[in-house]
Amino acid sequence: MTSRGFWDRFLDMLFGESAHPEATRPVLGAPMLSNWLPYRSFDKKHGMFINTDSIGFILELAPMMGADERSGELLTQFLSDAVPPGCEIQLIHWQSPSVGERIADWVMPRVVAKGVYGRAAMHRARWLRRAAWMSISRDAPFYLRNTRVILSIGARLSGPIGADTLVSVRESLRGTLQALSIPARDMTPVELIAFLDDFLCPAVDNADKPEHYSELDPINVQCVRRDLETQVTPDRIVLHTERFRPTGERQDGAPVIGEVVPDKFDWRFFSVRNLPKQWAPWDVQKIIGDVINDKLRFGCNVMTVLGLVYQDEDAVASRAGLKVMRTTSLADSRSARFLPQLSEQRDEWQYVQGQIRQGRKLAQVYYGVGALSPLGKGDINERMVKSVYKACGWDLIDERYLQVMGLLAAMPLSLPNGLSADLKRMKRFKTMLTTTAASIAPLQGEHTGGHIPHVLLIGRRGQPFFWSPFQNAAGNHNVAVFGKSGSGKSVFLQDVCAAMSGAGTKVIVIDDGRSFEHMAKAFGGAFVEFKLSSGFSLNPFDMIDGEALSSDEDGEDYEVECLAMLKSIVGQMARQQDRLSDTERGLIDSAVSKVWREKQRSGTIDDVAAALRALPSPYAGDLADAMSPFLTGGTYGRFFEGACSIDLSAGLTVFELSDLSSKPELRSVALTALMFLTLRVMRDLDRSVPKLTMIDEAWQLLGGGQMGQAIETYARTCRKYGGSLITATQSLNDFYKSEGSLAALENSDWSIVLQQKEETINDLAKHQRFEMDHYTESLLRSLKRNGTEYSDVLIKGPETLAVGRLVLDPYSATLYSSSPRVFSEIEEKVRAGLPLPDAIERVAFPDFVPPEPGAPDFMDGELAEAAE
Q1: Burial label, 500 (beta-carbon count in 10 A; 0-12, 13-18, 19+)
Q2: Which of 26, 136, 214, 634 has its CA 20 to 30 A from that of 753?
Q3: Which helix H or strand E contains 470, and what residues bound it?
Q4: Beta bridge partners of 374
């Protein structure tokens, strides 16, 4: 059609249509989603977004890990006192499928390490990335999610609130968040564009996310991709994104354009019809997915929105007073006996009036929920979302014919730009106290872990996080691990070794059971077996670093450490089972010190025995006699003569002591000597390099004699050199079976718990050997291993209590297998000429065909059908 003027149309009505040449071109236009967005420009000076009819700021918050009465009171205080009338708040909780960046942070150090490390990391990444759209578990929903919390506060441009007032509100908000230990950062226009793109064009990897924006163009037109197709129906919004998008990879120097699936999505929005009668801030954890019940978790990406509109305080107080008078009058009337709810309404409004007098406020509150699903899975996910909320006492109803309004409510600063008027007109607001609003605020998330990409775990609700013993900056880095047989403990310990070694950590494992043999060989590490026929030498005097002794900086401290470990080794030789008395300890101290003064590093165990016999005390001769098996001519004497033959140059070294199990007296001395040697390695390496010593089946290896004192000395010295000691048993009670393992437990700031027997948990509670409240006990009882899909891991440490899941891909599962058949198949393929990483791949995936660059990592049958 052409555009014609008013007089032309008027004359046509009077005299009939006249002939006119086509003077103007046809008007081409299509409804655009970006036209609904309010964002126009950004005020860098104040950090404010300038919109069509509003101004405001946006913060991104770290999710809260639980809540208590104090946190609820602080949030209520902020909502009541710090936000002036005229401001409107939006709190947006988004469980994003964009987990690729977090996984990539874990993969990169291992790709740099190359070999099996890199190949295993790539397979783990591929396995976890596909879990954004496909459940890892067949039994219950288990998808990967990245929880994001966005908070925006804005006001109308025509109102009394200006930029300076909003800056003051933001500073007050930062103080409240700091008191709640919630980190927050300002959201820039580029980050806002990326956030909106995250739920309009969702993907596991946002390789083509915007990195800059144009200040010369309105922000809203930059928020929506031009190739996004939006179809609005009465009960959903269907999004069709571009399938072929950059993957972030490069091939021969050129960017790879890959196929991103799924590319069609189903957004459904709901509002709340009924709220539960009782609710506390910590209950919000239930509506992001139950931490105990696997069935009450979401199978899709869920968006939760809380909006608050503040009203005039005097008007609100007057209204509350009128409500109290009216309900009191009705409740006292004769007809009240037929309407028992009148008494409840009277009590409620009296409570509200009392809260207002204490400084609380009444606000208009909007609560909305949105569910994002791949097209074709919306119905089942809608039922699941409603079921989770219903189990918590909430009733959700469809926003029929109001889906666009639900989508706009999920966009920061849309509320003060006119959306609140639409919501009010459609009766979507509920009047609440700020106390109630603080209690239902969607601030909760899962444990996000530390910043050191060592062990990669997945929270029960799908949040990937890193754990490392070195993320404890306050105390030591030692760890006690316990899990019953079949809980996945050995596999977890192997993954810890592989993950930390692949990230550059020096790892030494002392094992009794060959659990680490195949893994160590596959990663190119050293596997050292202690056999009587192997002819190894553990002369402790030769383990001492002569250059370190002559150091001007800490030579004296090092000498004291060496003497302490020498005394521990000699004490273990003299008393394999019983503890040394004070007298015996003093005699050994005198003898070792004498040999050290006279011979330094050339001393031997024979010299120490001779020094003991030379002492006038009769007990000294008994100690020397007890050491006879370790002297020249004794049963084990040849293992403590000459130069030390143990090589610890490999990045991953495993010592296998199972062949010494029938000779516990030699095994305990060998273990003490190995610990002494690892301390030298820790000292020689730069302190910026993490070092890890792991002892599996610790209660057996650390039993008897002087191991308690040796472990205490070792644990303290580990902290000094930036090292970590991990000890593992099948039960916490096992740590109490020997002084050495008990000393290891008492010197460990971290506890890692895998599945335990019910009677073990009862015993822990009875003897108070593990500090736990009702919630922690519930977590312990819920730990499980779900076949080959995952193993639950409870992490308890400094300011940390979290449950993660170790999820293995088939490649890692093959790599950690203790089956001789599996490893023989790998060796057979290596002999046939395949590189080791490829050989493991062929065994793990017999029918595996490597994907072409840019091909999707997975193609689920249902998703492919829905996409077509």
Answers
A1: buried
A2: 136
A3: none
A4: 265
The structural domains of the chain, ordered by start, are 33-97+133-440 (no CATH), 465-528+646-808 (3.40.50.300), 537-644 (no CATH), 812-867 (no CATH)
Inter-residue contact 685 to 720 (CB < 8 Å): no
Q: Is 530 helix (H, G, I), strand (E, B) or coil?
A: coil
- For 210-228, b/e burial (b = at least 16 CB within 10 A) is beebeeeeebbebbbbeeb
Cα torsion angle, 34, 36, 37, 40, sign? positive
- The predicted pLDDT at position 863 comes to 35
- Asked whether the CA dihedral 627, 631, 635, 639 is positive or negative, the reply is positive
Token readout for 148 is: 């994001």
Q: Is 161 helix (H, G, I), strand (E, B) or coil?
A: coil
Q: Which residues contact 150 (CB under 8 A, 6 or more apart)?
A: 58, 59, 60, 61, 90, 91, 92, 94, 187, 195, 412
Helix (H, G, I), strand (E, B) or coil at 246: strand
Mean pLDDT computed over 255-269:
91
Q: In degrees to the nearest 10, what's the CA dihedral of 440, 445, 446, 447?
A: -110
The residues that bridge with 307 in the sheet, in sequence order, are 90, 366
Structure token pair of residue 554: 């800490």
Lowest mean pLDDT, pick from 17-31, 140-154, 424-438: 17-31
Q: Give the pair of three-digit tokens for residue 618.
A: 């009769």
**Could you give the residue ranges of the DSSP H alpha helices within 635-689?**
664-684
Report whether 373 contacts 266 (CB < 8 A).
yes
| Residues whose CB is less than 8 angstroms from the CB of residue 573 and which lie 6 or more positions away in sequence, other chains included | 605, 626, 627, 629, 630, 669
For the stretch 100-135, pLDDT in tens is 999 999 999 999 998 999 999 999 999 999 999 999
pLDDT digits (tens, 9 = 90+) for 480-526: 999 999 999 999 999 999 999 999 999 999 988 888 988 999 999 99
Rounded to the nearest 10 degrees, how much is the dihedral formed by the CA atoms of 841, 847, 851, 856? Answer: -110
Burial label for 78, CB within 10 Å (0-12, 13-18, 19+), is buried
For 818-840, the DSSP string reads --HHHHHHHHHHHHTT--HHHHH
First vs last Cα of the chain: how many Å apart?
Answer: 36
* Helices assigned H by DSSP within 392-528: 403-409, 420-425, 434-440, 489-502, 517-522
Report which secondary-structure segment, H or E, holds 90. Answer: strand 87-96
